[in-house]
Amino acid sequence: MKKIIAFLACLFCVPAFADTSTPPQPAPIGPRVSIFSTTVDWSGITGLPLAQYTGKFVGTNKSLLKNGLILYYLDSFPCYGEADSVRVWLDSFGKTENKLRLVCIYPPREIKFAWRNAGADAEQAETTGILTCDVSGDYELEIDLSKCDKGPDWSKYK
């Protein structure tokens, strides 16, 4: 009987020593923006098959290339860039170590890049603006840098 009374006493005493304070609440997080690509199922939406295309840069533009040019492909219909190949660096002579790879419903005739001048090993930083380039070719796309048009700098967009 003494054991039962001791056990019941413990049951009633333990809550008295428990921490009943409310735990600290995390700081509120601002609204989160989710960006979902519209390119997820272009083939399903259009009924057209997807194919892989590669981009090769030709021509030179000394005022554009300077000490090197970093290009980031901007997804737009009919193509989206493959995640590991949308950043391309070109040296001051227009040569590149990597290729642009796109998945498209049909070969594009114009593509856009976010761009900035920087050396090969430069850290990722803000780009300057949009570069619009004409494209020719079928599965091996040619992008002529001498015919690309620089759009306004980002600060001039409203």
Can you tell me the overall shape?
A: elongated
Mean pLDDT: 81
Q: Could you list the spans in which at least 5 consecutive residues all have pLDDT below 50? A: none
For the secondary structure, the number of strands is 9
| Proportion of helical residues | 10-25%
What is the rounded distance between the termini? Answer: 83 Å
Radius of gyration: 28 Å
Please describe the biggest sheet, giving its number of strands, its sense, and whether it closes into a barrel: 9 strands, mixed
SS strand fraction: 25-35%
The count of helical stretches stands at: 3
Give the class from helix and strand content and strand pairing: alpha+beta
H and E string: HHEHEEEEEEEE
Index terms:
single chain; 158 residues; alpha+beta; nine-stranded mixed sheet; 3 helices
Overview of this structure, please?
With 158 residues, the chain is an alpha+beta fold. It contains 3 helices and 9 strands. Strands 1, 2, 3, 4, 5, 6, 7, 8 and 9 form a 9-stranded mixed sheet that branches. Strand 7 and strand 8 form a beta hairpin.
Compact description:
With 158 residues, the protein is an alpha+beta fold. 16% of the residues lie in helices and 32% in strands. Strands 1, 2, 3, 4, 5, 6, 7, 8 and 9 form a nine-stranded mixed β-sheet that branches.
Furnish the topology, listing elements before pairings.
Elements (H helix, E strand, L loop, with lengths): L1 H16 L24 H5 L4 E8 L3 H4 L3 E5 L5 E3 L5 E4 L9 E5 L5 E8 L11 E8 L3 E5 L4 E5 L5
Parallel strand pairs: 1-8
Antiparallel strand pairs: 1-5, 2-4, 2-6, 3-5, 6-7, 7-8, 7-9
